[in-house]
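Exercise 4. Each item below gives a protein and its sequence. For each, produce the structure-token representation.

Item: NADH-quinone oxidoreductase subunit G (Thermosipho japonicus).
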Amino acid sequence: QCANLCPVGAIYETPDWRKVLKILDKKDKKILVAQTAPSVRVAIGEEFGMEPGSVSTGKMVAAIRRLGFDYVFDTNFAADLTIVEEGTELIGRINDGGPFPMFTSCCPAWINLLEKEYPEFINNVSSAKSPQQMMSSVVKTYFAKKIGVDPEDIIMVSIMPCTAKKDEITRPQQKIKLEDGREIKTTDYVITTRELAKLIKMKQINFIGLEDEDFDNPLGTSTGAAAIFGVTGGVMEAALRTAYEIITNKKLPKLEFNAVRGLDGIREAEIDIEGKKLKVAIAHGTANVKKLLDDIRDGARYYDFIEIMACPGGCIGGGGQPKSLDPDILKKRASAIYSIDELSTLRRSHENPDIQKLYEEFLEKPNSHIAHELLHTYYTDRSVKNKVVTE
Ligand code: SF4
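Answer:
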């Protein structure tokens, strides 16, 4: 039970790399698809002696292909999709008067904490699945149709900074129902950044010597807004970029929301959207998260929108990331994440042309019926008081 709550993987880390290795060595007719989370690319290089804060996206993609994956997609694409779905939900709540505060939902360790210790906030949490789960749902429906294969012939492997993501994929409410009635799991295996590095080393792939390669398409295009998901405050900033522009129908004069950046455990800001003041907060690290939630429960604080990440620094500090003794490791990885955003041509999730195409060809519109079926979930009260004791 503790392992489900443990964001830093101190208690156990299921060795899924062994299962993935078996699949890679088997070379049967299954189609092997990988996806990589925003924070993996700014940390994996450390396992191969690169300076902390190096961005090694192209080498990472090349190494995953050398391992034998048929397609390498970018979880950042799904982070853009999450922002469009979650941003639409936020705008809906602003128009309908709540319920507030609305909480982000992409951190599964936070969801476990919510269900076990703060169930009174269940209706406040966005119903949007995490980017990992949105990507796998889209791969096993939209992409499977595009390449003409049965979804059950695809093996979906996520590469995540996180040990809690291994638990997330076992939640029954994360399954999707296909048109023919079959219920399927979307992500089959999760391996961490460290486990990916282990596989690359075992296969004697010269990571440093690899030429950069691009993600596969159509699920490989992403924006700078998606890149910043990997750092505390990033989901909030990405959501604000989209919500502001959709509500006002105006371009933001400045895309950086500096008030929500930084590594302080709890940060708050007031964002003016055409006269409507949105009170936002960000918390990372379980102790800070609990402090914030307790204050809200006691009525000592009020906010409209809150980003919660269980790990210190957000996913850059996840339990599956390379171990480091560098006291500035989080700052270095965060600065690498922000540099990806600054160098991106597209920096707003709703401007991702492949996301727009996905809606045109398949999902119809944000928060549509089919989007809800595939991209949203629900939470249950798993607190001790609600547990039925059986002998
Ligand atoms: Fe996983 Fe990121 Fe949450 Fe840590 S902050 S538990 S790495 S999703």
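Check: The beta strands are 31-36, 71-74, 102-103, 154-160, 176-177, 183-184, 189-192, 266-273, 276-284, 305-309.
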